[in-house]
Amino acid sequence: MTEVEAKKPQESLQDRLAQVIELLHRHKLVEDLTHRQEGQHHDRVENLVHRQNLVELQRKLEDLHPADIAHILEALPLDERLTVWQLVKAERDGDILLEVSDAVRETLIADMDDHEILAAAKDLDADELADLAPELPRDVVHELMESLDAQQRERVRSALSYEEDQVGALMDFEMVTIREDVSLEVVLRYLRRLKELPGHTDKLFVVDYDGVLKGVLPIKRLLVNDPDKQVGEVMADDPVSFHPDEDGYDAAQAFERYDLISAPVVDKNGKLIGRLTIDEMVDLIREESESEVLNMAGLREEEDIFASVWKSVRNRWAWLAINLVTAFLASRVIGLFEGSIEKLVALAALMPIVAGIGGNSGNQTITMIVRAMALDQVSTGNTKRLVRKELGVSLINGILWGGVIGAVAYGLYGSWSLGVVMTAAMTLNLLLAALMGVLIPMTLARLGRDPAMGASVMITAMTDSGGFFIFLGLASIFLL
């Protein structure tokens, strides 16, 4: 191994990003300097310097994996992103487009003409083409489909016929099939004739002459068993398999539960039509996790961090508008007790504590519930049990921490009654937070909506308004 090769694993992705940014900045700096100079050879010098910097940057990009280039593109502003994108070799465009986020992919495709898109997509597999097709111009997709052979065209259409989160849209068509009545020696000779195995091949799929799945032959069994044995003797005849219309997230959980690397996909007649692989499942889990985080904050879709102001505004305005309404309601709750606040100024200093702790507690509850629902650990039928449990947790926390803040209030203002009111308000608001933390995601699920959608915004609104009303209401009754 050479010295350069030995250093490569030690170079982090952030180091590579920093190097690309440095080259871009150097290129821009030199370009600005040459623009200011005049002379007979100005254009020639500028062109030479321009090419030298871009060649160095292109050489750096050639050494990077498509996934690393995708990460770099996502981390660059639009003008620098397009500069880097234009330096990527055309044969790598398709792989990189599959790796970048949807929002960034949109900006890259918009910078490509039809010929470039066709060149990028021509070497992709059917399942990869199906991933890109919805984001490509319709006439390009039509021309692309015409260029495929009948089998590839049918596979792309099959993948496109399913929803994006169904197994049929995620499955891979590249797999190795064998018969159960041949020897392991025959299988080994067959594999040696192949140029290479499809990625993530940890098992071979055993089918009959009609293509019906009979079992799987793990590679490790193939290697350690007597070559004279038949496939049927050593294969696993009860593999975990999936149907194309199953939910992809359920399949991803099965991959995690059974430590799968690949798994067959069969139709209703048991015929093998594709396979799922661990890389697709990891991508799906990551996308679902990112989607939940965005939904909790009320963002409607994934957003390019360097998107235009107008695009970002469109993505964020809806829940901000709802939040504005709820904030106004909270202010009106405070307005109902203006007289009480004027008589006892300490209320103004203490009421944000009640609302803030309630919001944090509610977010804890709602995060636990949403996570459990995503993992299929709970359903809407468990609502009453979960409400009782979370109310119990909140009651203990309310009495404990409410007592602490009540003692602090007594120490600051010398009023034991204010301390008691503070403890009671804290406890009641935590109970409200627990109740809403369970009911909000459960109600959204019953309505067929994403349980995480705007959950953080809604729970904060409830605990703010409720906390102010409870604390100021109790203070008005018992202190004034």
Automatic annotation (TrEMBL):
It is a multi-pass membrane protein. It is found in: Cell membrane; Membrane. Coiled coil: none annotated. Keywords: CBS domain, Cell membrane, Magnesium, Membrane, Metal-binding, Transmembrane, Transmembrane helix, Transport. One of its GO terms (cellular component) is plasma membrane. The chain crosses the membrane at residues 317-337, 349-370, 391-413, 419-440, 452-479. Residues 171-234, 235-291 form the CBS domain. GO terms for molecular function: magnesium ion transmembrane transporter activity; metal ion binding. NCBIfam families: mgtE (TIGR00400). Homodimer. Acts as a magnesium transporter. Belongs to the SLC41A transporter family. This is Magnesium transporter MgtE.
